[in-house]
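Archive transcription. Copying these from loose printouts into the bound notebook so they stop getting lost. Printout 1 of 2:
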Amino acid sequence: MSEEVGGAVRGAGDAADAVGAVGSAVRGAGDAVGGAGEGVQWLSGEEGRAWLGYRRMRALLDLQLTRDLARDSGLSDADYDVLSNLSESAEHRLRLGDLAAHMLWSKSRLSHHITRMGQRGLVARRDCPSDGRGAELTLTDAGWEAIKSAAPRHVDSVRRHFIDRLSAEQIRVLGELTETVVDHLGRIQDG
């Protein structure tokens, strides 16, 4: 483990240990300003440890996977997301709006990113044949080769830094808890 990552992991534990003190200080501050924060269900020590640990893990894991992906393939996370989604779609084509919605990006943001990827020859954009208002994205031969080359190394990175660190039971529980939260958030987005 690098000193940077090791220090960050140790820092996550220190932060988790401090959550009770922070909660107490915030509750105390609320009392001092006329009861602000009354009725708030503050995180318990265990809940705070889990929440802060998750946030720190996500930040460190995203950082490491991003570094590995860039080093191994020259692709960014966004490049990989676009290429993998196109590679898994019928005929390697998707409407720009559908891909933007799936990636939780605005159409404008994705359009700018697709322009840069198009300049590198990874994707092509054309007017949607069934609807002149929309754009359709196509994975080019170069994009197909890029994702085929990047995917095995990216999966190896995910295994090395995440999956292989967990037991089968932890993976099962993680799958259940992510489905619970994603279902909840999906209903909010759809509602």
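Printout 2 of 2:
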Amino acid sequence: MRQRCARQEDRARSSPGGRPATGAAGFTLLEIVAVLVLLALLAAVAVPKYLDLTEEAKLRALDEAVAQLNSRENLTWSSYKLTDTATWDDSVLQARMTTALGDHYTWTGNDVSFEGGPARTFNRQASTAQAPARWTRSP
């Protein structure tokens, strides 16, 4: 008797012909294709933006490297001014300062790159008795 009732309930939930009744859970093929198209469009817009952001971040890292080199120059110049009474010699000051920026930076001559990003030329303006050296990078 219980089996008969269960079968009748199943038939009541189905439309004629054994198809699921309207309102059954699931997605149609058209809905799935529409979602895939929207995701493809989103990816087509988002991926280039992400790559631009990555490139821009690598250039900002080079700006930070210039700031770090300028800070080192200031500290080295101040120390030299306070301890050495000899005549001014920029080459001595330059020899005292380290230009190592870390493993993520690559120096090739005066060109510096960050994690394989675009290389930029770093220039050092010599220090004087009145001012420390100044680092800049090419655009």
